[in-house]
Write a structure and sequence with these properties.
Largest sheet: 4 strands, antiparallel
Number of helices: 3
Structural class: alpha+beta
Number of strands: 13
Strand order of the largest sheet: 11-12-7-13
Distance between the termini: 59 Å
Length: 177
Amino acid sequence: MSRIGKKAVPIPSGVTANVEGQTVKIKGPKGALQVVLHGDVEAKMDNGAIKLDPRHETKRARSQWGTSRTLVANLIAGVTKGFEERLEITGVGFRAAVQGKNLQLQLGYSHDVAYPIPEGITIQAAKPTEILITGPDKQKVGQVAAEIRGFRPPEPYKGKGVKYAGEYIFRKEGKKK
């Protein structure tokens, strides 16, 4: 039995939820999101909450049960509070700035990297060495953060590059004479 899947997802005030077959649609103050659940999981509205149950007693159905409940809970958290990811840039001359609908990154290459900001995502660069990515969709926020980090991942010798806030970079000792 899934301990996470057993709990119903409560719907807070100001949020409307709609379950149509395998599609769960959530609308709130930060936007509207939807998810299509796996066929082995059944979702239904139950007095102000969304209850999920496995359709069969197979291993796959039980594993999708907890995952589906977390996806629905993330939709509700996204339309109420939203999600954020912080990136830090380390390195001499490395910086970021938002220009219109693009994020301009200077990461030590011969050219600037222009990253187009996707729809539904907000990127702020309050300091040239910090990037704040916010949005209602947890998967999209994480994907954007991973793509920006992928332009120059932190290297182990000097620690230069783009890293997540709080990420520990395992440092190596350089060459010895």
